[in-house]
Design brief:
Length: 140
């Protein structure tokens, strides 16, 4: 079961190299935000179904729960694939953490965004992750 795309057209990587500028990443955010919200909501459903399967109520039909769980996981995987096709990387399902590959001073870095942020506000080196977030004004 493949989910319906979140948008009418998939957002393609902005350049042939697949690197985003801060401006390109910000322009892509409305689309990325919708997919990240779908991922977060679908992930929550999957976790709840998994918990129900681990501790089923007497009235629960475990086979029906399992089938529904598989459908939700397929839907979740479709959303993750959709994001991947745009050239960004999902780093956290629950908070909607997304990395956009970029270049800064001749090296690859990651523009870092999470659900709730109005625009790209941070970046980090490829080996530091979320804990190494720095202000986007440094490269913006």
């Amino acid at each position: 079961m493949t989910p319906e795309p979140t948008s009418n057209a998939l957002a393609a990587p902005p350049t042939e190299t697949g690197y985003f500028t801060v401006e390109q990443a910000n322009r892509a955010l409305p689309y990325i935000r919708r997919v990240a919200e779908d991922i977060r909501n679908t992930f929550k459903q999957a976790v709840e179904l998994q918990q129900s399967m681990e501790r089923p109520d007497i009235a629960d039909n475990v086979n029906a729960l399992r089938e529904h769980y598989e459908q939700i996981v397929d839907k979740l995987n479709g959303y993750v694939d959709e994001l991947s096709e745009t050239g960004v990387a999902l780093k956290d399902f629950e908070i909607g953490l997304i990395d956009f590959p970029a270049l800064h001073e001749g090296r690859e870095v990651l523009l870092c965004w999470k659900l709730g942020e109005p625009r790209i506000v941070a970046w980090h080196e490829t080996d530091t992750g979320f804990a190494g977030r720095r202000d986007i004004a440094e490269i913006g």
